Amino acid sequence: MLNIILLSGGSGSRLWPLSNDARSKQFLKVLRDEGGEGQSMVQRTFSMLDKIPLEKNIVVATCASQKSSIDIQLTDAEYDVVIEPERRDTAPAIMLAAAYLAWEKHASLDDTVVVMPIDTYASQVYYDNLVNLDKAVQSDVAELILQGAQPTYPSEKFGYIVFDPASEGMVRKVSCFVEKPPEPEAQRLIDEGALWNCGVFAFKLNHLMGILHAYTDLQDFDSLRDAYRQLPKNSFDYEVVEKADSVAAIKYEGEWKDLGTWNTLTEEMCDFSAGKVLCDETCSNTHVINETNLPMVVAGLSDAVVVATPDGILVSDKETSAHIKPLVSKAAESRPMYESRQWGEYKVISKEESEGQAFSLEKILIVKPGKQLSYQKHHSRSEVWTITSGKGEVVLDDQVKPVEYGSVVFIEPGTKHAVRALDDDLHIVEVQLGANLVEEDIERYGFYWND
Amino acid sequence: MLNIILLSGGSGSRLWPLSNDARSKQFLKVLRDEGGEGQSMVQRTFSMLDKIPLEKNIVVATCASQKSSIDIQLTDAEYDVVIEPERRDTAPAIMLAAAYLAWEKHASLDDTVVVMPIDTYASQVYYDNLVNLDKAVQSDVAELILQGAQPTYPSEKFGYIVFDPASEGMVRKVSCFVEKPPEPEAQRLIDEGALWNCGVFAFKLNHLMGILHAYTDLQDFDSLRDAYRQLPKNSFDYEVVEKADSVAAIKYEGEWKDLGTWNTLTEEMCDFSAGKVLCDETCSNTHVINETNLPMVVAGLSDAVVVATPDGILVSDKETSAHIKPLVSKAAESRPMYESRQWGEYKVISKEESEGQAFSLEKILIVKPGKQLSYQKHHSRSEVWTITSGKGEVVLDDQVKPVEYGSVVFIEPGTKHAVRALDDDLHIVEVQLGANLVEEDIERYGFYWND
Questions:
Q1: Burial of A287 (C-beta count, 10 Å sphere; 0-12/13-18/19+)
Q2: What is the pLDDT of residues B431-451, one digit of tens each?
Q3: Which residue of A196, B54, B161, B339 lies most exposed, with the fewest beta carbons within 10 A?
Q4: With an 8 Å Cβ cutoff, is B333 touching chain A?
């Protein structure tokens, strides 16, 4: 059995405004699957892994805010999700996932575990190589076996895996790692056969459990999760890779990309425009995404990217777009303006502010047929719901009443409330009023109706 | 007494999305007055005319949709507005304004009338020249006296005033007009002393009233307005200028521009950005206007214009922006998404559509202190109002009730309703529901409260 831990993290501010805290880049459906349908990096990775001829346990290690995006996108896949209770870097997240494999999935301690990013863009060979990583681990070639990519240029942005010159064959001994070297050194390393570090690590489950036991004697998953703060706040590289007695690596030759900037992402996008966009023939190599319902006209641009969403508007030269992070962190809203949820989605359509303080916030909620919002209350805001489409039921402090097109519901602060859609999408215009209009002002009481 | 008819027309789709049917380019406050405050072309024209040392009657000839924009922008000026009952080209509009001067303002038939566009961008000399036009008219040099601008390049887009070679002096006899000649011909005309036609025409009131009487015997303004359809649907150039027995022109040397495209308009804009915009230092000669409340980041653009408003988003190379009209007419909403009104303003914040048909539309209305919406009813839509700021009064079928922050008002189709703000701005989130969500579904009953 091959155990795979997929790391799904990151807020992707370099892909703002398409990504936000609730919608990381790996969930954006900007790629195409074989049938021509929109596909996210997460979906692509699962479809690639699916083709590996091995029995697999797949665990996605992620944070709470991504759980629902993962479940929405992976309806046909088999996998488990392990949620880190708080952000503490990659080492404890991977340890928690490994403990889950050992204690909840009862994986054999001799089985191979492969850790890899969920958002890499690579060819099938990269995934097929997991068979070779497994073989190398099982042959005890080294404590850790890495997959490294053949560099295509002397990048200053990646880490390099440097081989022991004496070692030969498909699985070669690693002598050291060099992080983000200047270009001349990068070129020298490449000339000597060094590879880019892809963040793919294979080892026996036993190895990582041994490291975990140095920090805790706990033997069950729930207790470990509760004691998560006791684990070291450290990266897997420092905590595990650099301390390993022996490391070897396998070379991967093929496409390998971090689609984390508009520049790299648009290269893989099939369409030049998406949404309500009119681009004229004077545009060249320009990608436009419009997720607002404002009509958009783009003319006379070259090598540019234009993206408009409820979170904001970006217009940038592609080259420059790799460096917009500081601007975005200044510009971006402090809250996501769009989110997909298990029950449907919401979009903030307006926010009225006075002296930097919001005094009203308007949303459109779309609840999917049969789905419900959790029973909840807000301490300091009231909400006015106007149903604009569909039929459903609203409960206010245990009083259930039917609602439909045209119904208006007033929810006082402190009133427990929930809503569910019946046979069709239920559209609700929500007006929030109060002094503290944040998602966090919420107390949840599970589901009111049986799910 | 100098009579001035200012023509205010045009929907300005070349300045979309900043201009729309209710907000033509001449009302956009993109210029600066001497005190550094935002100034529109209309305001600039009035401040220039104000400096002419002559007694003046000013009449603005325009259409109904512009009346309130004019009144909002010209609070300190003295002028009358003559509204064309329907769009019938410039000749009847100018005839109606002339009739207003003669019959309502009792201007002398021997007085000079100057017709000019309201949205020209020119220096003070251009306006001061009206004194010379008046003198030439009163000296009976010709039936019509024009002001022409000294060309600065052989434009193919303008009309040219060609002089009689035998005529000399400040007021020269015109031999013919040439519309939009190809460049070589334009150059030849310029070499021979031709001027650009600025659309400034001076004549005795009597002259135009004579032409009017060829079409109608009516002798009072209201009757003429009611009989507006009887007037020829023709331009002033064809109906009056080309038929004149004698035409002369005065040369104007100085800045003269049609700020009707982004390319020309941005040249006169003082600021490179307005609204919620972060532009980095990699941008050059790029103008950005953001009137939405979406944050905007612009990076690495050169010679571009980026404009986002509730009506839409335009991103264009400046040069190309002069040619976007066909794209805009395809992209633009069929209704204005933002309007200033006498009572305040509204903005459409969302529109939910199904199969191209809107089933709900969300607006934010801001009613200014002491102002009111007219008493009105809608036949096929209902409205839900949530008050998000301020205090006011709402009347529903003659029942008055106070409203404030948090109040919710449900307005059924057919219910007469109005609202007024008390001491502060009254903010209302309006959700419109129904099958026919257009501004035109309205029946008005004047003001409910004394104004």
A1: buried
A2: 999 988 888 899 999 999 987
A3: B54
A4: yes
Q: What angle (nearest 5°) sits at the alpha carbon of residue A366, between those of residues A414 and A29?
A: 125
Amino acid of residue B97: A
Average pLDDT over residues A280-290: 92
Q: What is the pTM of this model?
A: 0.81
Angle between helical axes of B205-213 and B90-99 (0-180°, round to 10): 110
Phi, psi of B351 (to 5 degrees): -145, 120
Task: Give the pLDDT of residue A12.
Answer: 62
Q: So what's the ipTM on this one?
A: 0.79
C-beta atoms of A280 and B427 within 8 A? no
Asked whether the beta carbons of B111 and B1 are under 8 A apart, the reply is yes
Task: Report yes or no: A350 and B364 within 8 Å, Cβ to Cβ.
Answer: yes
Distance from CA of B398 to the nearest CA of A (A): 23
Angle at B131 between CA B128 and CA B137, to 5 degrees: 140
Is the Cβ pair B315, A299 closer than 8 Å? yes
Q: Are B151 and B196 in contact (CB under 8 A)?
A: yes
Residue B126 is predicted with a pLDDT of 97
Q: What is the pLDDT of residues A17-55, one digit of tens each?
A: 988 777 788 888 888 888 888 899 999 999 999 999 999
Bridge partners for A177 per DSSP: A161
Out of A295, A319, A351, name the one closest to residue B293 (CB): A351
Residue B361, amino acid: L
What single letter denotes the amino acid at residue B301? L
Are the beta carbons of B144 and B250 closer than 8 angstroms? Answer: no
- Residue of B337, B347, B344 lying closest to B373 (CA atoms): B344
pLDDT exceeds cutoff 90 at B341: no
Please provide the average confidence, as pLDDT, over all residues in chain B: 92
> What number of other Cβ atoms are within 10 A of residue A85's Cβ?
15
- Length reported for chain B: 451
B321 touches chain A (CB under 8 A): yes
Is residue B155 pLDDT above 70, yes or no?
A: yes
Q: Which residues of A205-235 are buried (b: 16+ CB within 10 A; e: fewer)?
A: bebbbebbeebeebeebeebbeebeebeeeb
* Cβ–Cβ < 8 Å for B116, B170: no
